[in-house]
Structure formats: structure tokens, C-alpha cells
């Protein structure tokens, strides 16, 4: 009998999970980037008619789920569970979205790794026979996150060149028990370990998160016996330019060369001329890039299989103020497209 657990950390879904619908919403800066034509909706400005950035983020999250459901003529009551998370204190955007849905809700938090955490957990629910259809969503908003985790944007604080730009964006996904007719399936997932290499600089998330991403990628290859050549694309979620280079080097030290098919969502979403310094980050980074670019590429047949590893820096304003280092985590998911 085939095992659902492979090695120490990898999960093998015996009944691969279908990604039947997805949607993405981004802010104006993201809409002006190289992936802008792929998103379902682009905000005219960062408030989008709301009185606060936090309210705007919550509206993005809810709207992205509505779009994903509408694409397949589904209703909220068709969902068995709703899994969601964000960066705001006590995952506020997700909680306030869930209060209006009337759907059993699981709030999750993995910082910028939240999307993949949700996809893996949602797939476990379906593969285990506990659900037939699950909604997964997450979001971030640049101005709301900066106000909470660093400095209010109104202060005009000069950002270091190692700093990343929190993506204003959201992504929502509808998962179902696999149908032979579906073109996108989740076949495996891997839940990462918390890694803390002593990095305490809250303006250099890429360097802090890279070891966690590398650890998860290496462990997946060790668990499964696969190698980088088995994928059209290996992509991390939120390392940006600095973290991407470090991750590639750390994985190579363990004998796996990913240089020929490796990229990062935080690198893809912005053009270098947009002055985002080290690239993009935030829950909405991988969430919007997966829905707005990667999965459409798979449906077109340009990508057959991808290994998405989303990374999260598990810090808080309190831990930063107390001089703590930054614990980080990375979760991965394998998605296969048209054969």
C-alpha cells in the first residue's frame, strides 16, 4: 500500500487534489508590474474607496474568494471549510472576512508562507475524507503591513536596500477531490521546520528566510528521491533578490543545483525600475503570483509541474522591539498541470 507520508516531512496525496478555480487581486503598483495583465482585478489606489488600508485589505480578500467561486458558479454554502490568513494582528482580515461567510473557518498564520500552509492543510482535509471542497485565501497590504511591522508610510522613512516591498494583493483558491477532467492537481506537500540562524534585521527578510526555504527544498528532495530536473520550475514565495541568491547557494551546498529552473515570486512581480529595492514579499506575494501568473501558465501548457515553496518570517513588533532574532519557516506544494 502506498504511504501518505514520505520520509520525515513530505505528504503524498493518494487522491490528488484538484485546484478547480482561483482568483487574484492586486494594488496599482503590482498592476503596473510585468505580471499586471494576469490579475483578475487591480485596485485604482491603495484605499479603493475604504477609510483605512486595513479595511481595503479585508475587502480584497473577500472579493478574491467571491471571484474564485463565481468562475465555477459555486456558492459559499458549497464550501465545507474556509482556510485563510494574513499579516495583520490576530489575522484580522481573514477573521473579518469569515464573519460574513457562514462557512466553517480555520484561521491560519505562517506569515508570508500562509498560502502554501493553507493549500497543504486544505489538501489534507480533502485527501483524508473530511471535506469535498475547501476555499483557501490569504492577503497582505503594503501600507497596513508597514504601519504595523515597521514605520507608517506617512513618515517617509528611508528604506534600506535590503528591504522588500510588501505586496498589496490577495489570492483565493478552490480545492476539490480530484476529477479526471481537471487540469491542475496538487500531488504532494511538505510542511517545514522553524529555522532561526540568528538574523535580527527586520529590514532584511530575504536573508532571514533563505535558510528555511533551503531546508524545506533539501528535505523534499531527500524524502522523495527526486531532483531539480523533475520540475519545470522551482519557485520560492517571498525571498526577493537577496534571499533567492542565498537559497540557491545553500541548496547547492547539499548537492542540489536549482540554478537552471529556480525563481522567486518576489522577483517576478515587480520590474527593477519600480524601486522596490530587494523585491516583493507578504502573504499576497505568492498568493497573487500563483493565481495571476503561474497557474495560467500551467493551463496554457507552458509549465507542466512546479514546486512552490513559500517562506515566512515569524516575527512581530513585540519581538523586534525586544531584540529577538527572526524565526522563519517554509512550506512547499507540488502542483501538476496538463500532461
Main sheet attributes: strand count, strand direction, barrel closure: 12 strands, mixed
Termini distance? Answer: 25 Å
- What's the helix count? 10
Radius of gyration: 18 Å
Low-pLDDT windows of residues: none
DSSP strand tally: 14
Task: Describe what this molecule looks like in 3D.
There is one protein chain. The protein has 339 residues and is α/β, with parallel strands linked by helices. The protein has helices spanning 28-31, 53-71, 92-98, 114-127, 142-149, 205-224, 240-253, 265-268, 283-299, 317-321; strands at residues 5-6, 10-26, 41-42, 81-86, 105-107, 133-140, 165-166, 169-177, 185-190, 233-236, 262-264, 280-281, 305-313, 328-336. Helix 7 (240-253) links the parallel strand 10 and strand 11. Helix 6 packs parallel to helix 7 (240-253).
Short description:
The protein contains 10 helices and 14 strands. By secondary structure, it is an alpha/beta fold.
Question: What is the fold's blueprint, element by element?
Answer:
Blueprint: E1 5-6, E2 10-26, H1 28-31, E3 41-42, H2 53-71, E4 81-86, H3 92-98, E5 105-107, H4 114-127, E6 133-140, H5 142-149, E7 165-166, E8 169-177, E9 185-190, H6 205-224, E10 233-236, H7 240-253, E11 262-264, H8 265-268, E12 280-281, H9 283-299, E13 305-313, H10 317-321, E14 328-336
Amino acid at each position: 500500500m502506498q504511504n501518505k507520508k514520505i520520509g520525515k516531512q513530505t505528504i503524498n496525496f493518494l487522491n490528488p487534489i484538484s485546484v478547480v478555480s482561483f482568483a487574484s487581486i492586486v494594488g496599482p503598483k503590482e498592476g503596473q508590474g510585468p505580471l499586471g495583465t494576469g490579475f483578475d482585478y487591480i485596485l485604482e489606489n491603495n484605499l479603493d474607496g475604504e477609510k483605512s488600508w486595513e479595511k481595503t485589505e479585508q475587502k480584497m480578500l473577500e472579493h478574491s474568494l467571491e471571484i474564485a467561486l463565481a468562475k465555477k458558479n459555486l456558492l459559499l454554502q458549497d464550501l465545507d471549510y474556509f482556510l485563510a490568513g494574513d499579516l495583520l494582528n490576530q489575522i484580522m482580515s481573514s477573521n473579518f472576512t469569515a464573519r460574513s461567510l457562514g462557512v466553517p473557518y480555520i484561521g491560519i498564520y505562517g506569515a508570508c508562507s500562509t498560502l502554501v500552509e493553507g493549500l497543504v492543510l486544505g489538501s489534507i482535509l480533502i485527501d483524508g475524507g473530511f471535506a469535498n471542497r475547501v476555499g483557501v485565501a490569504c492577503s497582505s497590504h503594503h501600507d497596513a503591513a508597514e504601519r504595523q511591522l515597521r514605520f507608517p508610510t506617512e513618515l517617509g522613512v528611508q528604506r534600506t536596500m535590503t528591504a522588500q516591498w510588501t505586496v498589496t494583493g490577495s489570492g483565493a483558491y478552490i480545492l476539490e477531490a480530484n476529477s479526471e477532467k481537471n487540469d491542475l492537481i496538487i500531488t504532494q506537500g511538505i510542511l517545514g521546520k522553524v529555522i532561526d540562524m540568528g538574523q535580527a534585521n527586520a529590514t532584511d527578510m530575504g536573508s532571514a528566510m533563505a535558510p528555511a526555504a533551503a531546508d524545506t527544498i533539501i528535505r523534499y528532495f531527500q524524502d522523495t528521491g527526486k531532483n531539480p530536473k523533475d520540475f519545470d520550475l522551482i519557485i520560492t514565495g517571498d525571498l526577493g533578490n537577496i534571499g533567492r541568491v542565498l537559497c540557491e547557494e545553500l541548496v547547492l551546498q547539499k548537492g542540489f543545483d536549482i540554478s537552471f529552473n529556480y525563481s522567486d515570486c518576489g522577483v517576478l512581480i515587480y520590474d527593477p525600475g519600480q524601486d522596490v529595492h530587494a523585491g516583493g514579499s507578504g502573504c499576497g506575494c505568492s498568493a497573487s503570483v500563483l493565481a495571476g501568473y503561474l497557474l495560467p501558465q500551467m493551463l496554457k501548457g507552458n509549465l507542466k509541474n512546479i514546486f512552490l515553496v513559500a517562506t515566512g518570517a515569524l516575527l512581530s513588533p513585540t519581538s523586534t522591539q525586544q531584540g529577538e532574532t527572526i524565526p522563519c519557516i517554509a512550506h512547499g506544494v507540488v502542483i501538476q498541470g496538463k500532461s
